[in-house]
Design brief:
The protein is an alpha+beta fold. It has one domain: 2-Layer Sandwich (Alpha-Beta Plaits), CATH 3.30.70. The protein is 11% helix and 20% strand. It binds iron/sulfur cluster (2 copies). The site of one iron/sulfur cluster (SF4) has 13 residues, from helix 1.
């Protein structure tokens, strides 16, 4: 269970929100394009995991990265940063 960083938060002008809000904000519905990893091309460098602003990329087992679409907002940073172009942005079917 992830602790809710908004609990007991009194929002004032200039309030600083505690870290970890990315774990309670599911941003998946924001997406128009979703990243898809081509595991044949992926060299398991971990760059996508490091650059994702929403911690949506996870190493699910050794040298295998997957994207948690509940948290991915489709910003495309991972696809831009992948050194071997293993991530393709695919239009969401809605
Ligand atoms: S598209 Fe953006 S939010 Fe989604 S996995 Fe890539 S870097 Fe993370
Ligand atoms: S950045 Fe590209 S090559 Fe590196 S782990 Fe992610 S998908 Fe694989």
């Amino acid at each position: 269970m992830v602790e809710d960083p908004y609990e007991n938060l009194k929002v004032t002008i200039g309030a600083v929100v505690m870290p970890r809000t990315t774990l309670v904000n599911k941003t998946g519905s924001w997406r128009e394009f979703k990243p898809v990893i081509d595991h044949d091309k992926c060299i398991a460098c971990g760059t996508c995991e490091k650059f994702c602003p929403d911690m949506a990329v996870k190493e699910v087992e050794e040298e295998r990265f997957e994207i948690d679409l509940d948290y991915c907002k489709g910003c495309e940073i991972c696809a831009e940063e992948c050194p071997v172009d293993a991530i393709e942005m695919v239009k969401e079917a809605k």
